[in-house]
Amino acid sequence: MANYSIKDLEKLSGIKAHTLRIWEKRYAFLKPKRTKTNIRFYDDDQLKRILSISILNEQGMKISQIANMSKGQIEDTVKGIAGHSRSYKYYIDQLTIAMVDLDEFKFQEVLHEVTMKIGFEDLVTNVLYAFLDQIGVLWLTGSIIPAQEHFVTNLIRQKILVAIDGLPTHMDRKLPSMVMFLPEKEMHEIGLLFQYYLAKKQGFKVFYLGQIVPQEDALETLDQLMPSYVVISMTTPQFNDGGKMFFQQCHKRASVKKVICSGSGIGPEEAAKHGVHYVKTAAEFKDYLLSLKKTV
């Protein structure tokens, strides 16, 4: 069971901490516990409760009305919300509840429902990325347990792999080839896997090397495959002397036209210093792919 501060609840529910404190006093929605050093915290059950209340409040239900409902009534009302009125936030909240409960069936059920409603690409870009941003912050601060983070990221990874496997196998031989991988120390591959999906869907020939690829191995692979583009993702800063040298070595390969990088470990200014094309979002990467297709 994880422990959450009121700021954690604010990040996950979208409800300001000040408002939560008012609700706590006026309606007794929340009953914080205290550590041995008298620091207030909230548990999984209280997180799920406030997420459910957030969903109902977003649908226009008054807090005073929700306050008179039992726990079971709140849960039943959330389940009964008409499908056409469900927002991205609704699905993000439902995924968060499934994560807290380590409920694989519910998590998969939500993923399936969103995919059927808006499609796989919108699921990833509008729901899963926002969801991962939320839990990523909490995981880094120790507010959720690693098991919860690993549980959901592995399910999401499986979802993307299934989507990749379902793509046509044909490639457009006129399009340039790409090598994709995560550098040393990098393990978070969901963003790069989705870029792999986008590139393969557009017909590019992509060699996907996976996680934690040593620099020497990556450079040897570039010599062997001679790709036109190198695509990497970084969530941790790696611009020490070794990192700078790696980009220089990539650009020395005659076949490599451009190194493309994404992730929080690099920004556009830092990337530009090293001749790297930075893409902030999956949409930017998709636009870049489409621009490449127009040039062939």
Report on the structure:
This protein is α/β, with parallel strands linked by helices. The chain has 14 helices and seven strands. The chain folds into two domains: 159 residues, Multidrug-efflux Transporter Regulator, Chain: A, Domain 2; 119 residues, Rossmann fold (3-Layer(aba) Sandwich), CATH 3.40.50. 58% of the residues lie in helices and 9% in strands. The strands form two sheets. The protein has a five-stranded parallel β-sheet, with helices on both faces. A two-stranded antiparallel sheet has the order 1-2. β6, α13 and β7 form a beta-alpha-beta unit. The radius of gyration is 22 Å and the shape is elongated.
Largest sheet, spatial ordering of strands: 4-3-5-6-7
Major sheet attributes: 5 strands, parallel
Shape: elongated
Strand content: 5-15%
